[in-house]
Amino acid sequence: GNILYDVSTSSIVGYPPLFRHAVFEPDNSKITVTSTLVENVPSLETEGMPLSDYTEKLFLGVVNDILSFAETDYEKFTDLAIGFSLKKEKAYKLKPIIQPVAKYLNNLTFGRVWKITKKQSKVSKSEIARIKSEPVVPYVISCVANLYKGDASMDKFDGVDPEKEMDTIIKFKVAVGLLKKLDKLAKPFSKKLKSMGIESIYSVAMPLLKSQKDIGDSNAELKY
């Protein structure tokens, strides 16, 4: 009945480049965990960028390239796919499936997604008009990045521009609407999904859009 905490380490050559510091306080029955981004390594060339921005560019760039090459240069796609545990032979067998899916995703816009999620997203026609031409892939890649950096907050805009803040909220509503729509479509397969430990598509993917935990991924106070 006790809670088991896993304080995982990060890597300064990965994304995000940080280290964790855990302070054990037996007298107070707690452990305080803090995370620090490594922004500068004198011996490492980062194109003039802080290390965190540089590793983010490399990480997100690979994810973007793999989708782009899946449509336009399949040979390069198979080279990159090895890094995602997809062997070349398998990748070529799946080409009739992967290539059209990649083409569809690369051309997918928020406007097209909104058309199938109007009811679930509750976003009006005038609201979606602001972002209808924007591609969905960069947004999806940002969500994937949240799997690694944690503390997802796709419903918030870190800035002072009211228009960009509104766009952030609209995109978030459309994304949530899509998850709800997918759950509706997957209802006939709910038993199969549960046998795989998946309660719903929404419950699995939502943490990539917005943190669902009371304890932070980067900084936390753990009671014991």
Which consecutive residue ranges, at least 5 long each, have pLDDT under 50? none
Rounded average pLDDT: 90
Approximately what portion of the residues adopt beta-strand conformation? Answer: 5-15%
Query: What characterizes the major β-sheet?
Result: 3 strands, antiparallel
SSE topology string: EEHHHHHHHHHHE
Can you tell me about this structure?
This protein is mainly alpha-helical and 224 residues long. Helices cover 50% and strands 9% of the residues. It has a three-stranded antiparallel beta sheet with strand order 1-2-3, with no helix packed on it. Helix 1 (51-72) packs across helix 4 (95-106) and helix 1 crosses helix 7. The mean pLDDT is 90.
Main features:
single chain, 224 residues, mainly alpha, 3-stranded antiparallel β-sheet, 10 helices
Secondary-structure blueprint:
Layout (H helix, E strand, L loop, with lengths): L17 E8 L4 E8 L13 H22 L1 H8 L6 H6 L1 H12 L3 H12 L3 H4 L8 H13 L12 H24 L4 H6 L5 H5 L14 E4 L1
